[in-house]
Amino acid sequence: MASDFKDLSLDQLDDQLLKLKKEQFNLRFQRASGQLENTARIRLIRRDIARVKTVASVKRAGSVKKGA
Length: 68
What we know:
Elements: H1 2-6, H2 10-33, H3 40-67
Helix pairs in contact: 2-3
């Protein structure tokens, strides 16, 4: 999955991050109300968010160095 994020543009990464954050919110809401069945999904989403942020920061740092 990490390789999937490397192929995306910065705009696509931002969209993916927004989508993952919304899913994380929904999962937290389900957990609080006792409706969450797959508790491991929260951990996977949190790690995917970190992956997207890492790839985005690397791409942004690379574009700054190329522009300088």
